[in-house]
């Protein structure tokens, strides 16, 4: 594990959902107080004090013998604190009636404290790898409704059509749409109560919050919960061996997007935009976010680029076609392709029968596959670029 493997384990919020939804069987009724008493015997070496009186234990959740909590640390100590995290996990695991334990290292308070901050290191942050996953591509958009999820699904299928093993992660924890778009229902299973097995459809391995909560359940997330939920959806899933994991990002540039970009080892990102200026302005925000966190942006896809009349085949540029291509050129980015606004795309996408899987030889599927080839080239180039970064202090 790399020293920066903080917050890799499990989050309290998602954990609670997992626990509830997977219906772990009840064991003994262990209480929070008993756990705190146990944790109070663990000494943090630097201060010589125990982790409970130091106020390091946060967000303790106990449910049916499943325990989760966070250890508040200084991010600079992440490496050594991993030992403490394991110690705490072992200590609770050894208690009677405890079935599973998830301990997360968090730097929430220290990052918000009024104390003068050390200057950020110049090197890019080390992100933990996802075992077995060779590359991760985020599909993002500056705002909702531009067809990002539709593009993500068809891009993933296009990559699979190139012979790659592909997974999809629905990172839109506020409005997960992949179960519906892929025609997937049911709940993922877990062999050990810790890691979830992804669901499978159209040759893709898929994980979405939509499998774990009912579609009409309102999701209320606090910032740290979002962070941990997303991390768990990436790291605590048995992806197996994947060439690419396509991440359908939530729209916008808020907490969830930043978490993915900062904590997950993204190989690159693709931005989906409609041609309208306003959408492009939003797309620029997305671009800047990835730039800030050193994630390469592979390029822009223009969705709903033009309208193809299903009856006469006539083309109309109803949203002012070409804006994304111009923006891409202006920003020195690659233009990955343009997808028409077409009834067949909407119908198949909304019916859970994505066009690239169900009509692989159609014009539209060919467009998605051509974009997938470009993305694949970008991934390969990005992975080949292993030149070390030298930092002159
Ligand atoms: P987002 O993820 O950006 O919110 P979605 O992928 O959910 O957007 O798409 C929003 C709606 O637009 C869906 O009903 C989808 O079927 C439809 N849609 C997306 N792309 C196209 C397209 N190229 N042609 C026709 N309908 C589309």
Mind explaining what this structure looks like?
- By secondary structure, the chain is α/β, with parallel strands linked by helices.
- The chain has two domains: 3-111, 2-Layer Sandwich (GMP Synthetase, Chain A, domain 3); 136-384, 3-Layer(aba) Sandwich (Rossmann fold), CATH 3.40.50.
- Helix content is 36%, strand content 19%.
- It has 13 helices and 14 strands.
- It has helices at 12-22, 32-39, 78-93, 108-112, 148-161, 178-182, 223-235, 255-263, 277-292, 323-330, 343-351, 355-358, 363-384, and strands spanning 43-44, 49-50, 57-63, 66-72, 100-106, 136-140, 166-170, 199-201, 204-208, 244-248, 268-273, 297-308, 315-316, 335-341.
- The strands form three sheets. Strands 6, 7, 8, 9, 10, 11, 12, 13 and 14 form a nine-stranded mixed beta sheet that branches. Strands 3-4-5 form a three-stranded mixed beta sheet, with helices on both faces.
- A hairpin with a 6-residue loop joins β12 (297-308) and β13.
- Mean pLDDT is 79; it is low at 1-28, 110-125 and 387-393.
- Bound molecules: adenosine-5'-diphosphate.
- Adenosine-5'-diphosphate binds at residues 141, 144-150, 177, 251, 303-304, 339, 341-342, 345-346, 349-350.
